[in-house]
Predict the 3D structure of the following.
Amino acid sequence: MMLRESVQHKKADPDFQAITGDGDAEATGVDHAALLIEFAESVVAADDARLASARGSLQAAVGPAGVVDAAGVAAFFNGIDRVADSTGTQMDARWAGKTAEMRDELGISAFAETKKRLEADLA
Amino acid sequence: MCLRRKEALSPYAVDGEHSSLGQLPDLHVDVIHRIATDPGRLTHSWYKDVIAGGMSEGEYVETVGIVAHVTAVDTFIRAVGAELPALPEPLDGEPSRYRPAEAKQNEAWVPNIIWDEHGPNEADYFQEGIGSNIRRALTLVPDEARSFFRLSDHQYLTKQQMWDFVGRHRAIDRAQIELLAGRVSAINQCTY
């Protein structure tokens, strides 16, 4: 929802499939989207060579301060995702309805389905 | 073992032992590894088994907080290409084991404090009014919640900045920030 809100004044009909790794990054309407996605993926993948390359490419586009801020955001979400998933925190009701269609389209709802299947296996 | 679990269709079908310094119970070590390496496939049944196995709810929430802090800090250091520093030495003394009386089961596996039900000890944390559920997630151990969301102020955005979609608060713009956040969360299969 945050991404949609922040892009809507820049691009009329953004496509966010790149969030789940399947789409065209530039279709998001975000500046330097492909470089940012490659940086995010290489940060989480813990692949030092790939990360060094991604960092260099991103720095050429957004500068050193941009890389530091991008690193901070990727790092914080790598942490907060663990808070959300290990405490079983439910999505806020005020957002769940607004984002349901988008989560289905992007395949994000499938993550919850995976959890339900694992839960059924454990029962 | 974490790698074998990560590659398995079900992480609960793979047994074994983690390498460990032997200073924590095996259950605690396993919880730390699962949160660190495969958080997107943790389940409520698994959590209930952990608590039934002897880890208190407070110990669990504090463990989550520590893993999340270390993940965020270490990820940042790696992302900027710096060397990981050594962990600080443990301090002497006993944990406070403080548990807010107002914490109860609500919209999460773990007990937490509802926005308008906090006591005076947590008034500082809740003074800015209603926030998202994730900001309540660690409130069973209030100092973990305070500390982790101070990281948000530095690495992401403050609570006030989060709702300002036009102003520029970083060297990258808001859409770039949210694209990074979304891609990282999708890779982690985060359901929040």
Summary: The mean pLDDT of chain A is 91. The CA atoms of residues 22 and 106 of chain A lie 9 Å apart. Helices of chain A lie at 2-7, 33-45, 48-87, 93-106, 109-122. Chain A touches chain B through 71 residues (CB under 8 Å).
